[in-house]
Fold this sequence. Notes:
Layout: H1 2-16, H2 43-55, E1 59-69, E2 76-88, E3 94-97, H3 99-102, E4 107-111, E5 117-126, E6 131-136, E7 159-164, E8 172-186, E9 192-199, E10 211-214, E11 219-226, E12 237-241, H4 242-255, E13 261-262, E14 265-267, H5 270-275, E15 282-287, H6 292-295, E16 302-303, E17 309-310, E18 314-318, E19 321-322, H7 326-333, E20 341-348, E21 351-358, E22 360-361
Antiparallel strand pairs: 1-2, 1-4, 2-3, 3-6, 4-5, 5-6, 7-8, 7-10, 8-9, 9-12, 10-11, 11-12, 13-22, 14-15, 15-18, 16-17, 18-19, 18-20, 20-21
Amino acid sequence: MLQRLLTLTLVATLATGPSVQAQPRPQVQAQPRAIAPRGALDAEEMNNIGVFKRVSPSVVHITTLSVQRDFFSLRTHEQPSGTGTGFVWDGDGHIVTNFHVIQGGDRATVTLADQSSHPARLVGAFPDRDIAVLRIEAPRDKLPAIAVGSSRELQVGQKVYAIGNPFGLDQTLTTGIVSALNREIESVTRRTIKGAIQTDAAINPGNSGGPLLDSAGRLIGVNTAIYSPSGASAGIGFAIPVDEVNRIVPRLIRDGRFIRPALGVSAGAPQLAQALGAPKGVLLVEVSSGSPAAAAGLKPFSYDRLRRIVQGDVITAVDGQAVADLDDMLSLLETRQIGEKVTLTVWRAGQTRKVVAVLGSSD
């Protein structure tokens, strides 16, 4: 009890005691510190600055808008539904971005580096590869096309740059390296995007659709995804390789969509091939009449009148490249043109042969 009273007395004394006052000081003439000189920027810094200055005018900010209707008044109004990044593909006003940046929006606005905004229309999209092309009407001198490089020559460890609009903060530069190559990521349609570039350059929400650049300032990929439990950059980002982009974008501009070359077949699940003792590949369960596959003599697995399985064909390779499943084969066919001939390696009842098919349209 005595200790408690002493404690209360000490607290009361501190609370009611005189406050600490600043002691008067003689007048001092304070001056700004002298600026210490520095030497020239090093070569890496100069290159970082040079890449940003050259490429940033080609990078755009994309805002998508959706139409909302008031529950009580039934009036409609537009409100922002998402933001992302894109880049100028050519002087005709074509803008490349991710499909998921514009997905679900009713309208999109593109803001150029000079902060001028322009309404955009959708030219075409290929959701399986998360790529979309928009078009704006703007003076050609405001549309500097990005320089296009190659992803085929990339090496793990080389320097990369990302320019984008993370969290809506436009014209942001981050740097890193190629952390890994030939990664597989999932598109919005759940198709596998093969050959993705992994980087540790900081990529955050809003960077999607922006360019990944090499040290020469050339486009080598389109930033599309991050791996992060928190939703912010954790040092693992992914980009669609530019060779894929350079193959798809011209078709979207020309046709308004990506029409995949096709054989005219349907495939069974990999588990079915395993149950039937067939090798890995595309096990045919249907061959459309009049299709390229039918013209090449391919046959599906089927049943006879006694419900016994009749051996059909399994496509195991296209032009010598092995295919483990339908997704593999579709990815290979996307690199070909309608009307092009392909050589298929086909297995049937333990025998392997090669046949030539002329690719048709998936329409």
